[in-house]
Amino acid sequence: MVYIGPVVHQRYAIQLSDSVRPFTYHRASSLDDATRHLADKSAIPIGGGTDLLVFLQEELAEPSELVGLSEIPGWRDIDTRDDGSIRLGAGARISDIARHADIQRSFPALSQACDSVGTTALRHMGTLGGNLCQRPRCWYFRRNIKCLKNGGSDCPAKLGENQYHAIFGGGPCYIVHPSDPAVALTALDAQVEIAGKLGTRTVAAEDFFVLPSVRLDRETVLEHGEVVVAVEIPVVSAGGRQRYDKLMQRGSWDFALVSVAAVKRRDGDVRLVLGGVAPKPWRVTSSIEEDVASGNLDETDTATLAERALYDARPLDRNGYKVEQASALLRRAITFLNES
Ligand SMILES: Cc1cc2nc3c(=O)[nH]c(=O)nc-3n(C[C@H](O)[C@H](O)[C@H](O)COP(=O)(O)OP(=O)(O)OC[C@H]3O[C@@H](n4cnc5c(N)ncnc54)[C@H](O)[C@@H]3O)c2cc1C
Prior knowledge:
The chain is α+β, with helices and mostly antiparallel strands. It is built from 13 helices and 14 strands.
């Protein structure tokens, strides 16, 4: 159980199995205030706390300060622009994004992805920024069994219990990124706005997530002290045909075994992005997207395209089933896009 109780003013403690670890909680009043505090090497940002507090209890991080972002002006806002694009504050609740009428109408792949996240309580507590930056669910990493992400010299999943691990983009570590919204945002060509002590920058969602071959300490391009401020979805991705499909081990709520975000934009361009299969949302190659965009596909064409999309999959000993699942989801998605 996680117990957080006041020790003295702004001093808190988290109950571990055999001890209590104190930390300071700082409620940032502005973005400047947040980035100033986060410049401290042992400070960590906190959104809804649904992942971070468990992570601390698992003794996977030892921050001296948690910096609360929720009081930063505009942090939770969802702004629809006159041109039809939309800006989501990093503090926007997953449930608010799922239920937002403009998002349901213009970006249904995102509202469906948000609606598929965990439980109702998690969607109410969890923020967009926290969801994109949540840490991997790999059971070796989360149980502090030595691995490449926690100071070990090898990935135990590679030859171990790798049922839920990557079939694309793995090596030297084989985590999959757990976020559903990340998959939809990649398919919608969203831009992620980042702020740190040295200023702001914007990166495409597709480039925001990085492979373990690039870095092992994190799953994103964020440097220490940087936070996600907002995510913007361009008007070019509004409307058209789009959907998000997710296969789970449990029927009711779970992380994705495999998921797919499929978008056919009004300008005819297609985006197909897989989730649950790689350390980052995995976009299928552009030549396949172009062939799907050309339309007039029969069942054989659809099956061939799905097969081509999975040609580079490299399943581990125990996750070959993900190739079958991805193939089924891709065929369903391509058929859906082809119906327009
Ligand atoms: C049982 C369970 C089931 C779940 N199922 C799903 C699922 O099906 N699909 C899915 O997508 N997710 C799922 N999740 C993850 C859940 O959605 C996340 O816990 C939640 O979205 C994280 O949001 P948060 O605001 O609580 O983040 P926090 O717990 O506050 O933070 C998570 C991480 O993000 C960092 N962070 C927070 N905000 C920012 C920011 N603005 N900039 C930079 N870093 C930041 C924190 O430092 C921390 O490292 C599940 C979680 C649980 C516990």
